[in-house]
């Protein structure tokens, strides 16, 4: 009986203390306070890249693994460190301050709460760079206006399933843009090809588009729309685009390539990703902006 009384007393004290802390206003805001305590994170050198791949919708296991490894290698070549995570609590002012680039690597679904979304928007508004890969541009992000209408600016419709993975020709549409440096005028990649309701809105610079004559843009397996054609010219079917946002010209690049880990074996895909990291970090043409070359 004495043990039970002592245990209940302990619970009462613990709960009372927790309530007092909350009522007194001393509870730290998740938006501003560091919550990651892993030893690796504490020793992370700067500049660094956050590779975030949390999923609340479809999870692209292969694409996540392939992009993670490729970005790690490229970061080493840049002299950047990196931190891979699926923990949304990293989206607070203190922790995000460590990063110059955030890569949303096949992130899907409503993975961040409103406070965390606001922390990202604040971080980006300072001029930091963002890269969005494949599933990060699907239709599961429509609840976050800044992300869906701002960063992406196009609504995902579907992808082929007859078959799902096909080789297609990509055509470079902005050859003078730094992200397309040393990339051939056209190249072939085998992947899952996204279709959007329309080309991206706003000040997006479309960097590459799909030649629909080189693959079968149909889906006869599921959904209300089987014909996924956007138009006869590669410019009608954007697949990689860039934009700058806000007074600080924060740079962002979306690439719909990245469902399969094998795509990163393509030297052209790897070159685009390498150029992307340098560009969004403003390591290339830092003064001119190059948002509308």
Characterise this structure.
- The chain is of the alpha/beta class and 293 residues long.
- The chain has a domain of 174 residues: 3-Layer(aba) Sandwich (Rossmann fold).
- Helices cover 28% and strands 21% of the residues.
- The chain contains seven helices and eleven strands.
- The strands form two sheets. The chain has a nine-stranded mixed β-sheet with strand order 2-1-3-4-11-10-9-6-7, sandwiched between helices.
- Helix 3 links the parallel strand 1 and strand 2.
- The longest helix has 22 residues.
- The protein starts with a helix and ends in a 13-residue tail after the last helix.
Please give a handful of descriptors for the protein shown:
disordered N terminus, nine-stranded mixed β-sheet, Rossmann fold, alpha/beta, two-stranded antiparallel ribbon, 293 residues, 28% helix
State the gist of this model.
This protein is α/β, with parallel strands linked by helices and 293 residues long.
């Amino acid at each position: 009986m004495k043990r039970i009384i002592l245990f209940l007393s302990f619970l009462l004290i613990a709960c009372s203390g927790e309530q007092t802390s909350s009522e007194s206003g001393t509870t730290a805001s998740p938006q501003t306070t560091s919550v990651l305590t892993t030893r690796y994170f504490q020793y992370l050198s700067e500049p660094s890249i956050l590779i975030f791949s949390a999923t609340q919708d479809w999870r692209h296991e292969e694409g996540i693994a392939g992009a993670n490894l490729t970005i790690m290698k490229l970061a080493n070549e840049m002299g950047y460190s990196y931190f891979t995570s699926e923990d949304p609590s990293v989206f607070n002012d203190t922790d995000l301050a460590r990063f110059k680039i955030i890569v949303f690597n096949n992130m899907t679904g409503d993975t961040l709460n409103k406070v965390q979304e606001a922390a990202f928007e604040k971080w980006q508004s300072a001029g930091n760079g963002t890269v969005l890969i494949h599933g990060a541009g699907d239709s599961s992000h429509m609840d976050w206006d800044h992300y869906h209408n701002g960063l992406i600016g196009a609504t995902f419709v579907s992808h082929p399933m007859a078959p799902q993975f096909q080789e297609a020709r990509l055509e470079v549409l902005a050859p003078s843009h730094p992200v397309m440096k040393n990339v051939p005028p056209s190249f072939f990649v085998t992947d899952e090809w996204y279709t959007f309701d329309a080309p991206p809105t706003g000040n997006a610079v479309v960097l590459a588009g799909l030649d629909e004559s080189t693959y079968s843009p149909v889906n006869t397996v599921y959904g209300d729309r089987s014909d996924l054609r956007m138009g006869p010219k590669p410019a009608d079917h954007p697949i990689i685009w860039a934009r700058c946002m806000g007074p600080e010209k924060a740079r962002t690049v979306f690439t719909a390539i990245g469902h399969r880990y094998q795509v990163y074996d393509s030297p052209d895909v790897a070159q685009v990703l390498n150029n992307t990291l340098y560009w969004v970090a403003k390591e290339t043409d830092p003064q001119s902006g190059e948002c509308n070359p």
